[in-house]
Write a structure and sequence with these properties.
The complex is a heterodimer. Chain A is α+β, with helices and mostly antiparallel strands. Chain A is built from three helices and nine strands; from the N terminus they run αβββββββαββα. In chain A, strands 1, 2, 3, 4, 5, 6, 7, 8 and 9 form a nine-stranded antiparallel beta sheet that branches. By secondary structure, chain B is mostly beta strands. Helices cover 7% and strands 58% of the residues of chain B. The longest helix of chain B has 19 residues, at 2-20. Classes of the chains: A alpha+beta, B mainly beta. The A-B interface holds A 131-132, 135-136, 138-139, 142-143, 145-147, 149-150, 153-154 and B 101, 103-105, 142-144, 146-147, 167, 202-204, 233, 453, 455-456, 500, 502, 504.
């Protein structure tokens, strides 16, 4: 476990980096496959992630969140497969339903999700907020140094 | 080869003399340890063994954390806001609107000049040494001041209820001093010898606090309170180094330890008018601090023949210290939209400190008081908000404060001449007659600035404080080797403090 502190630093950095992401709206509603984006559809559904064939993304319906894989991507539609419903509580994700399994058991129960690109109302690119990341990192580094001084006295 | 041997003899004698505290020891063979148990004793005895352990400032006002306030000379009881206000005025926590965290550190160093030390240093059987310089400075060091986090919630009528938890320095008891004496041997072609007593101290009385603040009138009148669980320790280590002729004498050392515990409360009130200014009051009722696990030890390692290594140790009797109440009142005024002025007055009657021993001990009569003076201080400051860069505010601040330090000062003369065996002889006065009625007055100037982004703020302050006070030569009231005539030296000290605070809201 000698790499534990390093792991902690990496995890903390990831948490900080994720926490410092910002959304920048794409005015022409276009996106690149390499970009991390949030696609918002007319009925309130959202896709979050890199939208490219085979990539894992997060799919959100009002009240429900799924992880999914992009099965098909054309000029007209986006098809999501392998949908797994997730619930997040206190930072812990739990799989509460496996749509793919139900497809196997109940056969053609339409487990894949078809979304029309014409229904996209908004495209946001997810970018790292460098200023905020720097600020948050510097604050927690400083606070950690103060904590070390405090504990060092004891 | 005689010269180095003679110098080494002087050095060895010096090391033994510094820490032997005047105790006579029988001659033992080299390598043996003479161990002396002083038993349990009180602070009166400690005054004679190491006066600086007792004649030191106790400070609650200077312990308040936050570079924003200190850049304004410490005039912050009216304007304190956010988590930082826990140390200044808990009512200021009601200004919190979102979860936030705060951290603060400071770095201290000092310089100064010393006068009144003798020109020469005489050791029996050794050549006269010429004392070129004698300096007494505070040990430089970095230390934490506060780490805290809090949040706020809206309750009925648009009022805010805020809460915070924090660990912060509550009472400063640390006062590490280094003494460096540079000497030369005129009879040996100006051969240099340096004697250094390096003091290293850590700790203080910390408060693990829960704070609650509430808006009585939304955004105008707020009250707040801290409940402080006090705990802390003082660990003081003194090391003696004597170098010369390419020789370093084995290091000797002494130590003093204390543990502290208690409970206190701070009460605060703030009245704010947007665009006009604010007034604030903070009151800390008297509280009792338990001082336990007091220990004193010294070890003098020698190499001379027939001189033993000398270990001296003892226990300082545990006692309860009733710390007097502290009152801070202040006001701030917005002169223009961008300029704010602030003033504050603090008063704490340290002379009312009461000491009640928990343990019985023999020796000197217990003194129910400490050598402390009443303290009052005036703080004024200004803040200007003219500068900004890409949405980052860059306020600049100036401050000044003046006041007394809590420690009583030594008189410049603590001896009287009596006739002993027909000869006039200088005799040390009892400790109760060492102190002067005059305060140790301190004057300080400060400036600082901040970087204020949307949710993050860094504050920096730099303070220069000057004061003059007296100390026993080599911090020993009477010693046949180091301070045969009970000389008191005067120290003009300049203390510089750099503080850095960071606060972040989420």
């Amino acid at each position: 476990m000698k790499h534990e502190p390093l792991l902690l630093v990496v995890l903390s950095s990831l948490v900080i980096a994720v926490g410092c992401a910002k959304r920048v709206e794409s005015p022409d509603r276009t996106f690149e496959a390499q970009q991390k984006v949030v696609l918002t559809f007319r009925n309130g559904e959202e896709i979050l992630g890199r939208v490219d064939v085979g990539k894992k993304v997060e799919f959100r319906e009002p009240g429900t969140r799924w992880t999914a894989r992009v099965g098909e991507l054309t000029e007209e539609k986006i098809v999501l497969t392998d949908l797994v419903r997730i619930q997040e509580s206190s930072g812990v994700r739990m799989v509460v339903d496996r749509a793919a399994d139900s497809r196997m058991e109940i056969a053609e129960s339409a487990p894949d999700k078809l979304l029309l690109r014409s229904d996209i109302t908004r495209v946001d690119q997810v970018r790292t907020d460098a200023g905020r990341t720097l600020g948050v990192t510097s604050f927690w580094t400083f606070a950690a140094a103060v904590a070390v001084l405090l504990l060092g006295e004891r | 080869m005689k010269r180095p041997q003679r110098i080494a003899g002087i050095l060895f004698a010096g090391v033994v003399g510094i820490l032997a505290l005047g105790l006579s020891t029988p001659a033992l063979a080299d390598g043996e340890i003479e161990s002396i148990n002083l038993g349990t004793f009180g602070l009166e005895t400690l005054k004679y063994a190491q006066p600086s352990a007792v004649f030191r400032p106790l400070d609650m006002v200077g312990a308040r954390a936050g570079a924003q306030g200190w850049a304004m000379g410490g005039a912050n009881v009216a304007g304190a806001s956010g988590i930082e206000s826990v140390g200044w005025n808990p009512a200021g926590l009601a200004t919190l609107s979102r979860p936030a965290a705060f951290a603060d550190i400071e770095w201290t160093r000092s310089s100064g000049t010393t006068t009144g030390f003798p020109d020469t240093f005489k050791v029996e059987g050794a050549p006269l040494l010429s004392l070129r310089t004698y300096e007494v400075n505070l040990g430089a060091g970095l230390r934490y001041n506060m780490l805290g986090a809090g949040t706020a919630t809206q309750v009925s009528g648009g009022r805010t209820l805020s809460g915070a938890v924090s660990v912060r320095r509550y009472l400063n008891v640390c006062y590490p001093e280094d003494i460096v004496a540079n000497m030369v041997t005129p009879e040996a072609s100006g051969f240099p010898i340096t004697m250094a007593l390096e003091g290293e101290e850590s700790g203080g009385v910390d408060a693990i606090a829960g704070t609650v603040a509430f808006d009585l009138l939304p955004s105008q009148l707020s009250i707040g309170a801290n409940l402080n669980y006090l705990n802390g320790r003082l660990r003081a280590r003194n090391e003696v180094h004597v170098t010369g002729a390419g020789t370093e004498v084995p290091t000797s050392a002494s130590s003093i330890d204390f543990d502290y515990a208690g409970i206190s409360t701070d009460l605060g009130l703030q009245f704010r008018r947007e665009g006009l200014g604010a007034v604030g009051v903070r009151f800390t009722p008297a509280y009792t601090l338990e001082v336990t696990k007091g220990r004193f030890s010294s070890m003098a390692i020698t190499t001379g023949e027939d001189v033993p290594d000398l270990a001296t140790y003892g226990r300082v009797a545990g006692y309860d210290m009733k710390v007097p109440s502290l009152l801070s009142v202040g006001a701030s005024a917005s002169v223009t939209e961008r300029v704010r002025l602030a003033a504050e007055y603090n008063i704490q009657n340290w002379s009312e400190t009461e000491v009640t021993y928990r343990d019985e001990f023999v020796g000197r009569e217990p003194d129910p008081s400490l050598p402390l003076h009443d303290v009052s201080s005036l703080h004024i400051g200004a803040e200007a908000r003219y500068f900004s860069f890409r949405g980052i505010g860059l306020p600049v601040r100036l401050g000044f404060h003046t006041g007394a330090m809590s420690m009583q000062n030594l008189k410049s003369e603590v001896t009287e001449t009596v006739i002993i065996e027909g000869r006039p002889t200088k005799v040390l006065l009892p400790a109760s007659e060492w102190v002067d009625d005059d305060d140790v007055r301190l004057t300080a100037f400060a400036f600082g600035f901040a970087f204020e982004a949307k949710s993050l703020r860094y504050d920096v302050s730099y303070e220069v404080a000057d004061y003059t006070f007296n100390r026993f030569y080599f911090d020993i009231p009477r010693d046949d080797f180091l301070n045969k005539e009970s000389i008191v030296v005067e120290i003009d000290r300049r203390v510089t403090q750099l503080r850095l605070s960071a606060s972040m809201s989420f």
